[in-house]
């Protein structure tokens, strides 16, 4: 089957990868001149990479790890010391480590919490542990049913004091979904915690050894094209044209730079674009269906990525840090953490600004100035002097992953749509890893699996197997 996929982010590429495995012929159409979507990156005039976002991989990403194994690029993941590291707002420059020992799960994570005395008192630790019991014991069903509450409401309900919210869950919510705990669905941090507690290396952080388009997307493109598929950039989907029976007749791609629009005829069509984009392209007659109407309930959240190059080393920490700053979320010195960005003499900090709704309309300079002000608290020895800024880049994404506020989970669509020849992929679609790289890969795989199940081929008479989804 010829399968046209609109969107060359991780979901679209993973979908195409698993479709070629199943004996189908996918063509990916990506609107931009670079692949990767939210993991896209491009080089500036000096040849330095500018990224859409600081990206961490986790041990609890089974589908991503399986995919990278199949592409034979697992060695591109640089696993960091098994720890979570927090800045301490009242102690400038001092870090608090949750070091996870080499013990079986969940004892390893629990031990890391028990051993850390910087952030939580013993009373708070006990209350948090007791409060978490239903999430651990009753598992996914319980965690899903907590989608009606914000994390702050859930903590209150479980008798866990506000200090724990302030100390831990502001940082966690901002890192997970770019919003505060009084906005995030309790399901999100609870599921992340459960995954971290269930697997020995679930909370271990890994970095790709270079920029995602080259180090992760290109191997997928090579794999797809070597097996009869195709990937085209600068090919934006403009319109979905229907047959009289409501199925898709063709995609129309917008011609760029004066070129004419182009028709794409395929047997099956997939949207692997973000929810904000597919909503604008849905044909009117589909929009009346509850399956498509529910997409109105999902909307991308703003986030900003800031990169700052300094004339010297600010730190030798090779890891992700939770800044615990009101403006910033996580950050890393990529000159230590990422092989391709390595520099023994100069730091390049990559920082996520979240929540970003108050910042997204501000100028790059205002965002950099505010970031530097915060960095003075994190690196008091070096800033505002003697360290000097060499250059900066700001990448704003006004609508990134779906905004994970309470009540959204029920509106995330499954990959199989009511239209016979149309499927959805994308990290916003139904899968248990939310808006993440793992979620994107799994969603693409689930869409490919649904297509393979409906249209078996000689190569794949049975659907491809999935790695445990939850
Ligand atoms: C700042 C930031 C930090 C993040 N950090 C992490 C992290 O540490 N760990 C993690 O797991 N996840 C992280 N994420 C989330 C992760 O990047 C996303 O969940 C994932 O990449 C989404 O992939 P996707 O394919 O579903 O969607 P997208 O990446 O949004 O892909 C959609 C694609 O569709 C294309 N498109 C749009 N319109 C059209 C059109 N008309 N025609 C054709 N193509 C079109 C877009 O250009 C894009 O390439 C982060 C995201 C951001 C923004």
UniProtKB/TrEMBL annotation:
Membrane association type: Peripheral membrane protein
PROSITE patterns: PROKAR_LIPOPROTEIN
Localization annotation: Cell membrane
GO CC, alphabetical: plasma membrane
GO molecular function terms listed in the Swiss-Prot or TrEMBL record: phytoene dehydrogenase activity
Statement: the UniProt record of this protein carries the keyword Cell membrane: yes
Pfam families cross-referenced by the UniProt entry: Amino_oxidase
EC number: 1.3.5.5
Reactions catalysed, as given in the entry: 2 a plastoquinone + 15-cis-phytoene = 9,9',15-tri-cis-zeta-carotene + 2 a plastoquinol
Source organism (scientific name): Romeriopsis navalis LEGE 11480
Annotated metabolic or biological route of this protein: Carotenoid biosynthesis; lycopene biosynthesis
UniProt signal peptide: none
Co-factor requirement: FAD; NAD(+); NADP(+)
GO biological process: carotenoid biosynthetic process; response to herbicide
Family, similarity comment: Belongs to the carotenoid/retinoid oxidoreductase family.
Keyword terms of this UniProt record: Carotenoid biosynthesis, Cell membrane, Herbicide resistance, Membrane, Oxidoreductase
Gene name of the encoded protein: pds
Protein name, per record: Phytoene dehydrogenase
InterPro entries to which the protein is assigned, alphabetical: Amino_oxidase (IPR002937), FAD/NAD-bd_sf (IPR036188), Phytoene_desaturase (IPR014102), Zeta_carotene_desat/Oxidored (IPR050464)
NCBIfam families registered for this protein in UniProt: phytoene_desat
Domain Amine oxidase: 10-451
